[in-house]
Design goal:
Blueprint lengths: L1 E3 L3 E3 L20 E3 L9 E3 L44
Antiparallel strand pairs: 1-4, 2-3
């Protein structure tokens, strides 16, 4: 989570990274309007992903696709490609 703006105070840093398990929840930051508040504008950005951010690739492990054997699927975008989705398909 990242917070941008000068019109607030917080109880910690303006950028936080946390790893939570399953249904776990945690209050990571408390914000309040500063005494010298000019606009009241605060921008909050949260990014998330499923999995372990600290996971390490094991070159000795054979990784399988999450599809049934003998199945085929059309690949329409690869990691790092220039194609970007632009809306509902």
């Amino acid at each position: 989570m990242r917070v941008q703006g000068n019109d607030f105070d917080s109880d910690g840093p303006k950028s936080i990274t946390r790893t939570l398990q399953g249904t776990e929840s945690e209050t990571v930051m408390t914000l309040w309007e500063s005494r010298i508040c000019q606009s009241g504008n605060v921008r909050i950005a949260c990014d998330w992903t499923v999995g372990d951010k600290d996971a390490e690739h094991d070159d000795e492990q054979v990784y399988l696709f999450p599809y049934a054997n003998e199945s085929s699927y059309r690949l329409i975008q690869a990691y790092g490609s220039s194609l970007r989705h632009t809306g509902l398909e």
